[in-house]
Amino acid sequence: MSERTLAIIKPDAVKKHAIGDIINRYEKAGLKPVAMKLMRMSKPVAEGFYAVHKARPFFDSLCTFMSSGPAVVLVLQGENAIKKNRELMGATDPAKADAGTIRKAHGTNIEFNAVHGSDSPDTATFEIGYFFPGMEIFS
Ligand code: ADP
Ligand code: MG
Question: What pTM does this model have?
Answer without folding.
Answer: 0.98
